[in-house]
Amino acid sequence: MRRAITIRDELDQIRTVEELTGVFESVASIKIARIRNRVIASKEYFAELWQTYRGLRIDPKEQLKRTSKKRNNKNVLVAVTAEGKLGGEIGNKVIEEVVRAHAETRNTDVIVLGAHGAEQLAHRGVQVAQTFHLPVSDTQFDVTDMIAVLDEYEQISVFYQTYESLRVQRVARIELVSAVRELSDEINQAEQEADVELLTSHEYIFEPGITEIADYLETLMMGVALTQVLMESKLAQHASRFNAMHAAKQKAVEMGGEYSLQFHRAKRAEGDERLKEIMKVFKELTA
Fold this sequence. Notes:
alpha/beta; Pyruvate Kinase, Chain: A, domain 1; 5 strands; elongated
C-alpha cells in the first residue's frame, strides 16, 4: 500500500487545483455579467444611431444599400475565434464551419478575428486574407479597422460562437448587413409603438452632405452589429471556460474525496503495522 505521506502530498495538490478552478470559475462568471451589461448599452447606442439615420434616409428602399461604397466584387467569410487555445470545443466548430463554407463558394476571401483561428485555418490549407486580433478588454471594442476592410466586400458572412445559455453555446452564421437590418426592424417597431417623432433632412443643414453623413452612419451601425457579434462570441467563450472550470472543479472535488479516503486507510494501515511491530517486540522481551 502507498505511504500516507505520499497520498497527503497528492491530496494537497488536488486541493490547490480545486481552489484555482474555483477562482477561474468565478472570474468567468464576473466577465459574463459584465458583457451582458455591455450588450444592453450597445443596443441603446444603436437605437440612437438608427433614429438619426432613418431621418436622413426616409425611403426604406434606400436604407443600407451601400451603393456609394467601392466594392472589390468579392464576398468574405469572417471567422470569430479566440486569441489563445482556451476557446473550447465550440471554437473548433467555428473553424469547421468556415472551412466547409469556403470549400462550397468561389471568389470568396477569409478574414479571421483571433490568432488561434488563423493558425487552425492555415493548418487546414485555407488561405487567410487578413487576421485581426480580438480586443483584450471585454468592455472596450474598437472595430474601426475591421469595418474599413469588411466594407469593401459585397457580402459579409460572419461565423461566431453564440451564447444561448450558460450551458449551451452554438455556432451561428449571419450576414452582417442583414444583422443591421434586423436590429433596425426592432427599433422601428419600438418607435411605432411609442409614436416617436423622427428627424428629417428638411429641418437641418448638413455638411458635407446628407449622403456622406448617412454613409458614415451606416459604417457606424455595421460596427455596432460587429461589436455585438464579438461580445456574444466572448460571452460564449467565457461560458465555455466557466463550464470547463466547473467540470474541473467537480472532478477535483471527487478526486479529493477518493484521495482523502485512501489517506485515512493508509494512515490506519500504518498505525496497525506499527502496533503489530510493538506487540512483536513486547512478546520477544517477555518471552
